[in-house]
Amino acid sequence: MSHLFSHYNYWIVIVLMMTGFYTVISRGNMVKKLIGLNIFQTSVFLLFITMGKIKGGTAPIVMAGKEDVVYSNPIPHVLILTAIVVGVSTTALGLALVVRIKEAYGTVEEDEVQAEDIRR
User: Fold this and answer.
1) Phi/psi of residue 55, nearest 5 degrees
2) Based on the structure, what is the number of domains in the chain?
3) Packing angle between helix 110-119 and helix 75-105, nearest 10 degrees?
4) What is the pLDDT of residue 56?
5) What is the pLDDT, as a whole number, of residue 96?
6) What pLDDT does 68 receive?
7) Is residue 113 in a domain?
8) What share of the chain is helix, strand, coil (3-state, %, to 5)?
């Protein structure tokens, strides 16, 4: 049982991931779908960041005279910085598309847009 609680970060990631996934699937509003995608994306960020941390690890800066130091892996943190930039830009593009859809169809509800598209 203590093994389950020692990895609480994975449980947080799973809850956030399923919350975002459920929001994307269950909502018809396109803005809410984008918010769900952002929640899902944040859970993936948290997963990678927590995997890069080692208990007792320090920043990977080599110092003279210290040979038995445990370092944390910096690669996941660097990759997540890039992913955050890509995530912000794709969210901005998604919101711009939602604004354009609102102008063209008068709604941001997915069902109404599809129904209007079939009528055309």
Assistant:
1) -60, 125
2) 1
3) 50
4) 81
5) 97
6) 81
7) yes
8) 75, 5, 25
C-alpha span between 39 and 17 (Å, rounded)? 7
Residue 60 falls inside a structural domain = no
Q: What is the CATH number of the domain that holds 113?
A: 1.10.287.3510
Position of tokens 């995608």?
Answer: 37
Domain enclosing residue 98, as ranges: 2-55+68-119
Please give the pLDDT value at position 81.
93
| DSSP helix/strand/coil, 33 | helix
Using CA atoms, how far residue 68 sits from 23, 57, 115, in Å, is 47, 11, 65
Asked if residue 63 belongs to a domain, the reply is no
What's the pLDDT at 100? 97
Q: In which residue ranges of the chain is pLDDT below 70?
A: 1, 4
Q: Does 61 fall in a domain? A: no
Rounded CA gap, 50 and 106, in Å?
43
Token pair in block for residue 3:
């093994």
Give the pTM: 0.82
- DSSP conformational letter for 71: B
Helix (H) or strand (E) holding 35: helix 30-52
